[in-house]
Amino acid sequence: MRNIILACSVAIGCSTVEGDELLFPEPQPEYNRKDWRHWIDEDKDCQDTRQEVLIAESTTPVTFTDDKRCRVESGTWEDAYTGKTFTSPLSLDVDHVVALRDAFDSGGANWDAARRKLYANDLSAPGSLRAVQMGANRSKGSRGPDEWLPVNEEFRCQYIGEFMAIKRRWELSLGAGEQAVLDYMLKICEDGGVPPLPQR
To answer: What is the pLDDT of residues 14-34, one digit of tens each?
Structure first.
C-alpha cells in the first residue's frame, strides 16, 4: 500500500507526496545588496570602480581631491539619462545599467561571491556602468526598460541595446512579458522612432 502524504505550506499550498518522507522545496536565496561587493580597487591603484568610471566618462581631464589621486573632485560629465551636464561627482551615481537586483532575479541568485563581485565592478564593456544624475538613477531603481526609460529621448534606443547586450553577455534571463516589450521597443528604434516612456 502506497503512503500518500498531504504536504502543506503557506508558500505553496498543499500537494500530495508519494512515499515515506515529506519533500519540501529548496529555500530560495534572498537578495542582499551587500552580497554584491562593489566599488573595489581591482588594480590596486587606489582608485575604486566608481572613481575609474568617473575618470573614464569625464569629457575633460578630472581633478583629484589630493596628490594621491585616489578620489575625483571635479570633471565634466554628460549624463546620458537626463541630457544634463555636471561638474561635481557629488551629483552623480554610478549606475549598473542592469541593476544588481535585476541580475539577482534573472540568474545571479545562483552565482558565487566571486562572480557577483565581477559583475558589480564590470569595466570590461562600455555601457555596463554609467555615471548618471543621482536622482535619475534612484528613480530607475532595479527596473528594466519595460518599466523605466531615460527622459533623454536621444539615448533611449542605445540604453535598450546596452541593457540587452549586458543580459546576453552575462547569460541573464528575460521574462516573456519583458522580452515582448523590448522587442516592440527595438522595432520602434529600427524604424527610426523613439520608444515612449512606459506607463506606470
So the answer is: 444 454 444 555 667 899 999
